[in-house]
Amino acid sequence: MNFLLSQQNLPRRTHKLIELLALCSEIDCDFRGFEEQCLELDRYYLPTRYPDAIIGTLPEGLPGRKEAESTLEIATGILEFVKGKLKT
Fold this sequence. Notes:
The protein has about 90 residues and is an all-alpha fold. The chain has helices at about 1-5, 15-25, 35-50, 65-85.
């Protein structure tokens, strides 16, 4: 979102990272390498943020420690990439 705002683009409100990524990719093709990572993060966002909002979103149930560590690593990598883009 910060990247889009830095480019004077105010996207519509969404919780889907893959949609925000598509908008960022239209501005800077370097974002295109994050599709799989954003899909993975999107998979966990709604059921962990709103556990009773969408029952059964994850067939295996809520994520455990392993999934949390993996998605934290993905999110940290994307955050560092965006911070680098904001500095340029």
